[in-house]
Design brief:
- The complex is a heterodimer of chains A (525) and B (388).
- Chain A folds into 4 domains: 2-21 and 144-176 and 185-223, no CATH class; 35-138, Immunoglobulins (Immunoglobulin-like, Sandwich), CATH 2.60.40.10; 228-340, Immunoglobulin-like (Sandwich); 355-453 and 474-525, Sandwich (Immunoglobulin-like).
- Chain A is 17% helix and 37% strand.
- The radius of gyration of chain A is 28 Å and the shape is elongated.
- A 5-stranded antiparallel β-sheet of chain A has the order 3-4-5-9-8, with no helix packed on it. A 5-stranded antiparallel β-sheet of chain A has the order 19-18-14-15-20, with no helix packed on it.
- With 525 residues, chain A is an alpha+beta fold.
- Residues 1-28 and 448-479 of chain A have low confidence and may be disordered.
- Chain B folds into 2 domains: 11-186; 191-388, no CATH class.
- In chain B, 63% of the residues lie in helices and 2% in strands.
- Chain B is built from 12 helices and 2 strands; from the N terminus they run ααααββαααααααα.
- Chain B has helices at residues 2-8, 22-47, 56-82, 85-88, 101-127, 136-161, 165-186, 200-220, 226-245, 275-287, 295-320, 359-383; strands at 92-94, 97-99.
- Chain B has a two-stranded antiparallel sheet.
- In chain B, helix 2 runs antiparallel to helix 6, helix 5 runs antiparallel to helix 6 (136-161) and helix 11 packs across helix 12.
- The longest helix of chain B is centred in the N-terminal third of the chain and has 27 residues, at 56-82.
- Classes of the chains: A alpha+beta (525), B mainly alpha (388).
- At the A-B interface, strand 6, helix 2 and helix 3 of A face strand 1, helix 5 and helix 6 of B.
Amino acid sequence: MSAMRRSLPLLALALAASLVLAAAPARAHVGSPNIFYDGDAGPYPVRVIVRPPGVVPGLAEVTVRVRDGRKADQVTIQPLQYKDGLKGAPAPEPAATVPGAPDVWSDALWLMSSGSFSVRIGVQGADGEGSVVVPVPAVRSQVLGMGKGLGGLLAVLGLFLIVGAVSIVGVAVREASLPPGEAIDGRRRRRARWTAAFAAVLFALIVWGGNAWWNAVDRQVRQKLFKPFAVHTATRTEAGRPVLTLAVDDSSSKEWVPLIPDHGKLMHMFVLREPGLDAFAHLHPVAQGKEQKNFRAALPPLPAGTYRVYGDIVDENGFAQTLVGRVEIPAAAAVEPQGGIALDPDDSWHASEPLRQASTAAGPKVSRLADGGTLLWHQEPLVANQETTLRFEVRGPDGQAARLEPYMGMLSHAVITRDDGQVFVHLHPMGTVNMAAQKVFVESASGAAKAGTAAMPGMQGMDHSAMAGMDHSSSGGTGGTSVLSFPYEFPQPGHYRLWVQVKSQGRILTGVFDTDVAQGGLDPL
Amino acid sequence: MESVAHAAVARPRVESSTALPWYLITMIFGSTSILVGIMWDISWHISIGRDTFWSPPHAAVYLGGLLAGLSSGVLALKTTFAGSAEEQALTVRLWGFRAPFGAWVAVWGCFAMLVSAPYDNWWHNAYGLDIGDMTPPHLLLISGIVFIQLGVMMIALSLQNRATPGEMKKLGLAHLYAAGLVLAMLIPVHIIEPNRRHGGFFYQAFAAYLPFLVVSMARSSRMRWAATILSAIYMLVIAIIALWVIPLFPAHPKLGPVNMAITHMAASPFPLLVVFPALAVDFFLQRREGKRAGWLDAAMIGVAFFVIFFIVHWYFAIFQLSPAARNWFFAGDRFYSYAHRPGPHHYQFWWPKEDPMTLQIFGLSVLWSILSTRVGLWWGQWMSKVQR
């Protein structure tokens, strides 16, 4: 805990104390808490952005953009809690259009308790009604610090209040009961002084107690800050094949809720070599045992080194989180395996040049793909905390638009991380939303009994939804599409690396890009 | 004896005998606005849910506080820089400024309330909104509000204590009205549900401080049935605001989980029947008028207060949980929040095992009542001497 509290002598204090509390980084999704969703609410293509509060209860900012020139007459927003679904939800609240942007609607929404929430966006217009559910994990992820200005101001005002209170007590004894016109005698003055001194001691005790109270609340809140489960990672060799193991250290087993698969996998694991981020793998470890806390994945031939490990999981309540660890992969991992557990058919890996400083300027960037084709990034200027769309174009070895196939139900997967690991996010063309979590909420909202039975508003099946974010105006060489777009907002400035994965002609292809993100005007964290 | 001595003081006349001073009117209005805002806010939270700092009930509280605080501030400036010697003689001096004692208390309260706003805002941003929990900034806010109301009461008190017989009734009633608002502020609606009234906590809690409030305020009043009147004012004000007017307005929850079908603003539980024990307080105090009251008086008043309080609330609670009370007048079950799950517990006494009312608790409550009364007599005697 990095609270910098200061008790001024005697009276000033409780207000002066606890002035500056350092902010802790948000951990849900690792430093990238804002939620983006590109998809359809019935007949209306929408982009939904949810900026959750860092504290709970707190206000989430919800923005809905009705896209492609469609016109909405009303957009409503409704919070759903996992346990209660639509039945226990308050009535949908109409959002207001943003001045100057008639296609953008916004509202603030209270998230009252930590846990698994979602927002249901309803759109009404000439094309009828549509809705979509976007999962929002409500977690307390930070404690705001108190700026020196506010701290100093409160200290001065607090001191003023206390001195004022002591003076009022003195005046009460000295003059309040004195008949008009009578002079204050020495006895009254002495009594007033003694009473004021007693009051000063009393107020000092109250302030001391208040400070202890404040510290206790601060400690309690910091203890309850959301932290993903700790993990233990290791590598070992099984039948000549290098294997990575990950064990969830769930000391508070009460909180453990069974996991559900996302794109058919219980965990999507990403390993990134430090410090240059020059080796990358997207793996799908298999859970061992009933508890689903121990995972094992065969390692592809990666260069030796220290790797960051990120494991995306989602539980039955629709609560998604990213487990974070680190592992040493030995040189032996590069040896061709002789049996043992096999790689998952959807596993992929890629080695590239180390991260280097890049330009923030707009313009195309090209990454060479393993099949001889290219991935083109139409980069726009990137500024922290400003919404953007990351647009890519895939070309085959012949230079023509490539025909893409779904890769685990999605047109593409992208991973974005900052050089220091403080930001990590796994994106799809539909945004940051975890599809399994979304499905849980759709079922919870519609009252469907079991997973897999509910229709998803605005998402008629996974394959169709996988096309969300696709630019339908462009078509690839043989009639498919080759254009990708991802809604995102870089949460912090800095040096970033992006891996964009697609599948073409049965082969998983990974393009790598480096970029710098400029400092924005305001940092909401 | 004291009243005789006060009457003999050559009292400068600054107000006519027919009109209340402007600052008393604005301060009483401010104090009323605060109470309306508080009751409205409570109903808002349990019917609609949370909203921003700028909700209408918050505005009513802050405007009321500002009105009372600014009135006091203007009075202080006016008396200090433009007051006659006679007017200044009716005030106390604080940091070189002159104003009635109650005005300083109200100014402090207003200032505390204002300081609490940025502190509370920061607190919510740092730790999240508090649900039902008291926090340091909220305690500061509530202290400010209570001090504003106490200041208004003290101003009315000093005017009453200097009043001529012709002014007495009006100023005495003004004081009792201000005192009734203080009582309304200090009896939290969160712990007066009828379902609690067969439990030990309810009786011990109120035995510990209600006699102090009622006795001290009544003792400082020059009105003959002061305790009864101020208790009736408390009951009437709460009933009108929180039971009979606020629930007329439609409302729908904006937060989940919504377990109760709410269509209108929720009421508060029916106010405590303080008038009944207050009658006993008046009965005994009338016998000690102009005389010092001591431990024997405290024992008699304390015992009578608690025994009557106990009997009245024990049996009234049975009525309140019955179908006969499920109407707009008694609001028997109309004070639950949207998040409450409906069920038979709305019509049952809570925690019969965890919080029983035993003979031992009854005895302890009588003891608290006597002690509370004794402190109330002492404090009331001091307040009855406030002249400025």
